[in-house]
Structure formats: structure tokens, C-alpha cells
Amino acid sequence: MKSEDLRDLAIKALDDMKGIDIVTMDVRPLTSITDYMIICTGRSTRHVKALADAVAVKGKEMGAPLVRTEGERQSEWILVDLGDVVVHIMLAATRAFYSLEDLWEPVKELREQKS
Fold it and tell me: Where are the domains of the chain?
């Protein structure tokens, strides 16, 4: 499965479950760990868990080669690793505190240079 297909699958699963403020970043120019990072906010710990479960289930159904999750116990920030796509699902306060979008700011700069 191509990384773009995994990305689209994850975005659809998050959107179907009413994920908030879904952001996708192409991080290929910056790291070899993954191709895409997706960040999404959930309304509650229960919603964060449901979003992560939806992404993991869809990934497994579509034959994603590797599906791992971390952070389910607290459910303030759950990471779903699909290999070429890493999905971060967080509560709003957690997302604001860690500000992953700012950590990966060079991605935004690269996008602007290519435009």
C-alpha cells in the first residue's frame, strides 16, 4: 500500500469519526522515519480513543503492513503508527502544549519554497 493511500485512509477515518482540526504534513524532506504525519484533536479522552481505534481498524482492514498504537491508557495523546504514516490524536490542551505543528515548521517552509 502506498503512503498516500495510508494517509487518505487515516484522514477519512478521522473525518468519519468527527476528528477536529486534522492537519497533514509531508515530512519526507526532513526524516526517513515516516512519510506523513497527521495531527488531530479529539473532544474528550473517550473521543481520542475512538478516533485512534478507527484509524487502527481501517489500517488493518486495508492491509497496512504495520499498525501499532501507544498512549491508550491515558488517552490524552494516542499515536497510531501505520509505518509510512504516523497519526497523533490529542486532546486540545495536549495539542496546544506540545505544539507539534511548530516543531515541524520546516515542513511549512519547504511547502512555501516549492510554491
Answer: 3-114
- Cβ-based burial of 78 (10 A; exposed 0-12, middle 13-18, buried ≥19): buried
Angle subtended by helix axes 3-16 and 45-61, to nearest 10? 140
**Which residue, 85, 94, 90, is CA-closest to 51?**
90
Fold of the domain spanning 3-114:
Beta Polymerase; domain 2 (3.30.460)
Q: Report the Cα 99 to chain-centroid distance in Å.
A: 14
CA-to-CA dists, residue 15 to 20, 51, 55, 88, 114, angstroms: 8, 9, 10, 14, 28
At 107 the pLDDT is 52
Taking alpha carbons only, the member of 34, 35, 39 closest to residue 55 is 39
Res. 87: pLDDT tops 60: yes
- 84 by Cβ neighbours in 10 Å (0-12 / 13-18 / 19+) ranks as buried
pLDDT confidence of residue 113:
45
pTM of the model: 0.87
How confident is the model over 75-88, as a mean pLDDT? 94
